[in-house]
Specification:
With about 160 residues, the chain is of the alpha/beta class. About 30% of the residues lie in helices and about 25% in strands. The chain has a single domain, classed as P-loop containing nucleotide triphosphate hydrolases (Rossmann fold, 3-Layer(aba) Sandwich), CATH 3.40.50.300. A 7-stranded mixed β-sheet has the order 2-3-4-1-5-6-7. α1 packs across α2 and α1 crosses α4. The relative contact order is 0.22.
């Protein structure tokens, strides 16, 4: 999960220089969303601890190549609360926004470039990465290329936008 996140982080860095990169993380509680986010942050150059922002809603990571905002909206009571925290200010060029539990912020959040869905199966975890925008397609192509050169297996990359 962390290794896949590192690959994803490298691909997100490539597009974040031209625009904001937004990734929605879907999956049941305990599926591994924060673990993948930890890998993304490592892939972007972060070497410290990564904690789940369940109570703070967002944790910022100012890194040399980009600023990464890790959101966990699990405890969000109403999407309007995002307006009070200035959510739109996070979606600027050079930023990467990783959003767990995006359904809690529907109608307020910016559209995702990618959706990563994590399913728990008897064999472990199943990851499905879906592009929702042209930028997302660029990231998927980068991830696909990196995965072909790695030993990471069990990743499904959806071909059609289903966001």
């Amino acid at each position: 999960m962390v290794a896949f996140g590192e690959v994803l982080g490298g691909a997100l860095l490539a597009i974040s220089q031209q625009a904001v990169a937004v990734v929605y993380f879907q999956g049941q509680l305990g599926a591994g969303k924060t673990t993948v986010c930890r890998g993304v942050l490592q892939g972007c150059g972060h070497s410290g601890a990564v904690k789940s922002p369940t109570y703070t809603l967002v944790e910022p990571y100012e890194l040399p190549a980009a600023t990464v905002f890790h959101f966990d909206l699990y405890r969000l009571g109403d999407p309007e609360e995002l307006e009070y925290m200035g959510i739109r200010d996070y979606f600027e060029t050079g930023n990467i926004c990783l959003i767990e539990w995006p359904d809690k912020g529907r109608g307020i959040l910016q559209v995702a470039d990618l959706e990563l869905t994590i399913s728990v199966t008897p064999m472990g975890r199943h990851l499905s990465l879906t592009a929702c925008t042209g930028q997302g397609e660029t990231v998927v192509a980068g991830v696909r290329s990196s995965l072909a050169e790695s030993s990471i297996g069990g990743i499904t990359i959806s071909e059609e936008a289903q966001c």
